[in-house]
Design a protein that fits this description.
Elements (H helix, E strand, L loop, with lengths): L10 E3 L9 E8 L2 E8 L2 H22 L7 H8 L1 E3 L3 H16 L9 H9 L14 E3 L2 E3 L12 H14 L6 E4 L3 E4 L3 E7 L3 E8 L3 E5 L5 E2 L2 E2 L12 E6 L2 H10 L5 H7 L5 E7 L5 E3 L1
Antiparallel strand pairs: 1-9, 2-3, 3-7, 4-6, 5-6, 7-8, 8-11, 9-10, 11-14, 12-13, 14-15, 15-16
Helix pairs in contact: 1-5, 5-6
GO molecular function, one term: metal ion binding
Catalytic activity: L-threonyl-[protein] + FAD = FMN-L-threonyl-[protein] + AMP + H(+)
Protein name: FAD:protein FMN transferase
């Protein structure tokens, strides 16, 4: 069973680029969710930049889209190994490994097996989980014989960063990219922070940074929220992380849904993290 969306995207743009002759917007669908790119550029530059961005999104989906049965990640989960993997797959595995270590194991892509077992209604095999069973290098990626991984807690952020960096090469300075998470060049862009239980609960201005938001109760697998861990349950209604890069924001927003307050305070000391917003189950908002 493939879930329709890893999580409910709770950041919605509250304002857009000024409607000038140079304002352009593309909307599409990737990784099982609506996506968008907003930029300010001459028509010719914008057209070339958006064509390149769309092509890059399709390449990213070919690697990491769990909703595509032909993607590399689906092949890894079927055959338990990828030989001669794409460089971007190895790169994202390296980011995932750092996120696993930086969060003390709260970010763990091997919960894909837990998703699989719970979605099928069968017993959960804890032996199928554990990042220590995963091996990767430029020549080969492998997982345990009963494992299944998901990179949905980081792949959208990674894709957002790849697209933002690509657009930057076109000389663009006013850009808002949303490939499941948001990253801005220039700004400020005003974004609304919402929670699936409590609605819109705040606003943030984003300038030259990224923001990612996770809400466990946005999607359930049986009686379990979609943000899972073999030893933890979700403690917060929503976690939103602002960081230098969307890859980091994405991984931490996922992991910190499982963290206690001391662990969140420790995560806030990460050099790339700028702000963490916590919404508890009563709808009360705190900022670290």
């Amino acid at each position: 069973m493939i879930l329709s969306r890893r999580r409910f995207i709770t950041i919605a743009a509250a304002s857009m680029l000024p409607r000038t002759a140079q304002a352009h917007e593309w909307t599409g669908y990737a990784f099982g969710a609506d996506t968008s790119i907003r930029l300010d550029a001459p028509d010719e530059t914008a057209d070339a930049a958006l064509r390149a961005a769309i092509a890059e999104i399709r390449k990213l989906e070919a690697q990491f889209n769990l909703f595509d049965s032909t993607s590399a990640i689906r092949e890894l989960n079927r055959s338990k190994a990828l030989n001669a993997p794409d460089k971007m797959f190895v790169d994202l595995m390296d980011h995932a490994d750092r996120a696993y270590r930086d969060t003390g194991g709260l970010f763990d892509p091997t919960i894909g097996a837990m998703w699989r077992d719970m979605a099928s209604g069968g017993p959960v095999s804890l032996q199928s989980m554990g990042w220590d069973q995963v091996r990767f290098n430029p020549s080969r990626i492998s997982i345990g014989d009963t494992q299944s991984i998901t990179l949905n807690g980081i792949a959208q952020g990674y894709a957002t960063d790849r697209i933002t960096d690509l657009l930057k090469k076109f000389g663009l300075q006013d850009v808002l990219v949303n490939i499941g998470e948001y990253r801005a060049l220039g700004g400020p862009f005003q974004l609304g922070l919402s929670d699936p239980r409590h609605g819109v609960i705040g606003r943030r201005q984003l300038s030259g940074a990224a923001i990612a938001t996770s809400s466990p109760a946005a999607l359930f697998v049986g009686a379990q929220t979609h943000i899972m861990h073999p030893a933890r349950t979700a403690k917060w209604s929503t976690i939103s992380v602002e960081a230098d890069a969307a890859t980091i924001a994405d991984a931490f927003s996922t992991a910190l849904c499982l963290a206690n307050l001391d662990e969140i305070n420790a995560a806030a000391q990460h050099p790339a993290i700028r702000r963490i917003v916590i919404v508890d189950k009563h709808g009360d908002l705190s900022t670290i």
